[in-house]
Amino acid sequence: MSQKISSPSHSNSSSSSKHDSRQDSWEIVEGLRGGLSNIQEPEKQAGYMLKKRKWPMKGWHKRFFYLDKGILKYAKCAADVEKGKLHGCIDVGLSVMAIKKKAKCIDLDAEENIYHLKIKSQELFDEWVSKLRHHRLYRQNEIAMFPHEKTLFHPHYPPTSSPTIPDSQSIRKQSSLHSPVSFTSQAKVTAWLQSSDDMDRCTKELSVCEAQLLELNHLLRSMEVLHRTCSAPAINKQDSSDGSRPLVHQVSNESRASITESLSEFFDAQEVLLSASSSENEPSDDDSYISDISDNVSMENFSNEVENERLDTGGTNGGSQEQRRSCLPSPSPNTSNISLWNILKNNIGKDLSKVAMPVQLNEPLNTLQRLCEELEYSELLDKAAHTQDPFERMVYIATFAVSGYASSHYRAGGKPFNPVLGETYECDRPDKGFRYVAEQVSHHPPISACHAESKNYIFWQDVRWRNKFWGKSMEIVPVGTTHVVLPGFGDHYEWIKVTSCIHNILSGQRWIEHYGEISIKNSNSEKCQCKVTFIKAKYWNSSMNEVEGAITDHKGKVVHKLFGKWHEGMYCGSPPSATCIWRTNPMPPDYEQYYGFTKFAMELNELDPLTKPLLPPTDTRLRFDQRLLEEGNIESAEMQKQRIEQLQRERRRVLEENHMTHQPRFFQKSKDDTWVSNNTYWELRKDPGFSNLDCPVLW
Fold it and tell me: 606-627 pLDDT, tens per residue?
């Protein structure tokens, strides 16, 4: 009898738990479905809401919002909205809307910015959500009727005018006065439908036009690539008769501002860790200026040449090939048939590292190899190790920190494979003077640890990522510290990486940007510090990917200034006499067809006969799904990916059932809870060799 009584209680408890879980998670608000609808014009809504403050400031501030016909305007108070002194304006119909009921939060992803709103009262929260839903549908229906009028400002309001803000009573009274869409609008739609005798033919013609536009866009981008020189920003060549190559660099007036001023220009948005957001300030009236920058790298303070020559750093253990490939076996697959929306629509605001993705969305490298890509310009560390002045050493260290982002410029279209627990990767590069090893040391949360060494420096880091999908964009927030030690000087540099964001996840041309601040410190000396700011792109300014920094002494006095673009090059000094410290290497031919890989990236997954016998069976290059994707065998790659992921789940279940935890083989936890090398990899590789050791079977 007691069981019958407790059963409903347990059911109610379970149901309540599921309800609370739904309340506590992000819910995406659906938009207009099907064709055109007869949606009643919504009543206006006005009132105060909390809005997340601009990075780097924390917390929320109260702002007055006014919603009319799908356009949400806001300012400090109602009077400012009435006067047209707006802080921002959001087209709700063109935004992705998500809500979290328990926290009473509303997110509007308008691509340029992500607006985080919060309401304290449950009643007001429900009212705003209801009104926003109605206005969003109305606006989307209006856009469907008049696509040529798709603009931030409502067609019925000229951009220069500001509507009068009604009081709360008048807003309520308007509900009885609102009528359906005007007869004139309906007549236009009806006439247009009647005149379209063959809608199928029209659809096919539109599809052909779209394909031709995409092809034209590809040709234009190809032409742009042909005319681009992969060196300093906007380099112009003079006539070949004089043989010189002066550099011309476009620097906006915002770029000349101090680092503190640059931080105030960040956009408003993201709510995770190091997230910056889009600026709402008005654009400067000052135009960008062009200044000449000297290409002379024999400046007294930088007597070492800074071209792509390599210092004689000697070799490491044998087994590395001399000739490396310059092309992948197969081009990247076509992913146009994959609906990312179907995959991501239920994961707004969630960590995407736990979301299964089709193998076509991957690139044939994994995270352990992507970390190795940060060493593509390791010659900067060699230069630092041979520079006596501590401030000049910091210039090279800071430039090295920036150079690690260069390879991501053309890589917004794919994601790296997630390493399975215990997976390893080595990169032995006598030509670059370093050897590198990495291991996946944790699965939940995913943590990748790596260590590289040469006779000039030691480099290591353990990195955890938090990926957040915000509707139209995805943020990648790294957690963990990067370390570089120069034994010759006793320097130990440390810094934390900036936030990365991939835009146009669901449609359009995807592009990646990095924003935030890197603070570099030498933990063994307080003589100098460095702050490098990755400037957030501004929607009113075509200048992108800009970086600027300052190296200061212990009193805060600026000793050196840095500026440039993270995908092109960095300079030290002030225009027009600045010195070029680093430039990116030229991209390989047809790189767009091969995942946007640099030459260095193309070499990372190469498996030559000399190296293969020396690798442990856990090395990434022996992983089947990644190798099959590289060879263009998509179907088999997907099958192997699912099989390898299932094997990992089974290994985890066995560990849990036996109350055991995974122990990484080549890394160990330090006192500060970070993962560092135990310095056994290369010794075991040499004697007795991995073929003579027991290694886990990962695939």
Answer: 998 888 999 999 999 999 999 9
The 10 Å Cβ neighbour count of residue 249 is: 24
DSSP H stretches of helix in 29-182: 78-83, 122-145, 168-173
Name, in order, each residue with C-beta under 8 angstroms of 77's C-beta and a sequence gap of 6 or more.
64
Determine phi and psi for 245, rounding to 5 degrees.
Answer: -135, 80
Q: Are 583 and 227 in contact (CB under 8 A)?
A: no
In tens, the pLDDT along 467-513 reads: 777 777 888 888 899 999 999 999 999 999 999 998 887 777 888 99
CA distances 119 to 133, 276, 287, Å, are: 16, 22, 40
583/639 Cα distance (integer angstroms): 41
Query: How many angstroms separate the Cα of 615 from the Cα of each of 70, 428, 429, 637, 681?
Result: 60, 11, 15, 22, 11
SS3 content of the chain, % helix, strand, coil (to 5): 30, 25, 45
The b-or-e profile of 438-458 (16+ CB within 10 A means b, else e) is bbbbbbeebbbbbbbbbebbb
Distance, CA of 138 to CA of 39 (rounded, Å): 6
134, 42 Cβ separation under 8 angstroms: yes
Measured CA angle at 556 (ends 553, 562), to 5 deg: 70
Q: What type of residue is 11?
A: S
Taking residues 251-266, report their average pLDDT: 34
Is the pTM here over 0.85, yes or no? Answer: no
* DSSP states of 194-251: HH-S-HHHHHHHHHHHHHHHHHHHHHHHHHHHHT--SSSTT-----TTT----EEEEE
Q: Assign 262 to helix, strand or coil.
A: helix
Tell me the CA end-to-end span of the chain in Å, nearest whole number: 52
On the 0-12 / 13-18 / 19+ scale of CB atoms within 10 A, 515 is buried
* Angle at the Cα of 275 from the Cα atoms of 118 and 570, rounded to 5 degrees: 155
Give the model confidence (pLDDT) of 431-443 as tens digits: 999 999 999 999 8
Could you give the CA distance from residue 385 to residue 377 in angstroms, rounded to a whole number?
A: 14
Strand duo 362-366 + 268-269: pairing? unpaired
| pLDDT averaged over every residue in the chain | 77
Helices (H), 373-523: 379-385, 390-403
